[in-house]
Design a protein that fits this description.
Layout (H helix, E strand, L loop, with lengths): L2 H14 L2 H11 L15 E9 L9 E8 L6 E6 L4 E6 L1 E11 L4 E12 L4 E7 L5 H7 L13
Parallel strand pairs: 1-7
Antiparallel strand pairs: 1-4, 2-3, 2-5, 5-6
Length: 156
């Protein structure tokens, strides 16, 4: 399994649990707290500014579920934001992989999915744009976006 598939599968497994509902609620509540990297820094910290670009069909505030993983890690940290907002996260300098899922919670549809590699420079701000495109059925199957009973987590 390549890095992209592994990271997106990890995100999808979290989405298949009730974690998705909590993250969507958090994004829509508009928490004033900045996302925080949970692990201690092994290297001097930098800041990554993550923006997701997607031509959403949903009106109003559209939640985006982001995951950020250190290169080579099998787990990551999940953040929730609103489409159009930029997430600013202080992380140790290094190489990362970011993935995003654009969700329409009312219709329970996945509007977009995308990913990007990024390098965070210590003591600097590193921008990251994640282009999200409309998912296809084969992508959803590959990522395992299914509930425990086997039903699809999202409609296309």
């Amino acid at each position: 399994m390549d890095t992209h598939t592994g990271a997106l599968t990890w995100l999808a497994q979290g989405a298949a649990s009730n974690l998705l509902d909590r993250l969507v609620d958090r994004a829509l509540e508009g928490s004033s707290l900045s996302p925080a990297w949970p692990r201690p820094a092994g290297a001097p910290a930098g800041t990554v500014e993550i923006t997701v670009r997607h031509h959403a069909t949903a009106k109003g505030r559209t939640p985006v579920i982001l995951t950020l993983q250190e290169t080579g890690s099998r787990t990551g940290t999940v953040f929730s934001v609103v489409l159009g907002n930029t997430a600013r996260i202080a992380v140790p300098g290094g190489d990362y992989f970011g993935a995003a899922m654009v969700v329409d919670p009312r219709r329970r549809t996945l509007q977009g999915i995308g990913w990007s590699r990024l390098t965070v420079a210590a003591r600097r701000t590193s921008p990251c744009l994640i282009p999200a495109s409309r998912p296809t059925a084969p992508v959803l199957l590959q990522l395992g976006l299914r509930k425990a009973d086997g039903t699809p987590l999202f409609k296309l």
